[in-house]
Amino acid sequence: MGAVGRSSVLPTVGTLDRGGRAIPVRTYDRLPGVPPVRVLWSGGGRHADGFGSLHPHAHDFLVLLYVERGGSSMRVDDREWALGTGDVFVVAPGEVVTPDRVVGAEAPEAWAVAFPPDIIEPSLPGSFLSWRAHPLLFPFVRGVAGGAQRLHVPVDDRAGISERFAALERELHERRDGYNEAVLAHLTLLLVAVSRLASDVASDLTLRDEPMLAAVFDVIEASYHRPISLKDVASAVGLTPGHLTTIVGRKTGRTVQQWITERRMTEARRLLAETDVTVEAIGARVGYRDTSYFIKRFRRSNGSAPQEWRRAGRRG
């Protein structure tokens, strides 16, 4: 397996106590001037983890794996995950990982990338809770059943995902002028692609045995186009507002209201990009009776007013 990036991620900095076992925790040993990103390509019988040992261990960084061809399995905490061609697998920091075993006659061919959260948002402290709300890192949080998540790349999109990894690897290997900025740009584009794969939140939560969260997102999906509050969502799923706030916050790192706002902004952006519906009408369609308040919320979420956002996308 080739290692790219010249940043070590192997030193053990401590242990986790899991069921009386001392689990080693692997971390980055950062080098000055070198982006803390490591890309690995696995094949030829080598294991696809590559960021620790062959024994159970944890990371204090994020790991993103993509299987181009073949099959394997990986245990994260107490859950066994089967991975096949076209699967993307994300693992959050702090989870106990037992690296893969081959499934089938041939070893899988897979890409993997490891990086600490602060390369995406330098202002974020290193703790787990601090990065959970970042939109590009949220697929790592959605792995609420054991700190991991498996996504599947449609056949037509697989070549593009592979090229994202390859482009990142080239920048790290060649180290040409501006490569620090290029590495961040390529990593960001890769995370955007993964975030889009993870966009179907409710069905994904249902598949991962999180029926309560799936019900919450079902209520939001059915009701975001009209005024809706935390109390309304809590009543619909049979919980008190306080209990619902605790569950959603603990498992997703966001509040119910933040999820409602995100769904509204997603639909508002779609309408602005694809239609000529007025800003006032769009606000009403996504649950805002007060147009000025809609504009304020849109600006806060997107960095510009709705009309400016629409014009910028239509220039030329």
How is this structure best described in words?
It is a single chain. The chain has twelve helices and twelve strands. It is globular. The N terminus is likely disordered. The termini are far apart. A hairpin with a 2-residue loop joins strand 2 and strand 3. It folds into two domains: 198 residues, Regulatory protein AraC (Jelly Rolls, Sandwich), CATH 2.60.120; 110 residues, Arc Repressor Mutant, subunit A (Orthogonal Bundle), CATH 1.10.10.60. With 316 residues, it is of the alpha+beta class. The chain has a six-stranded antiparallel β-sheet with strand order 1-4-11-6-9-12. A three-stranded mixed β-sheet has the order 2-3-5, with no helix packed on it. A three-stranded antiparallel β-sheet has the order 8-7-10, with no helix packed on it.
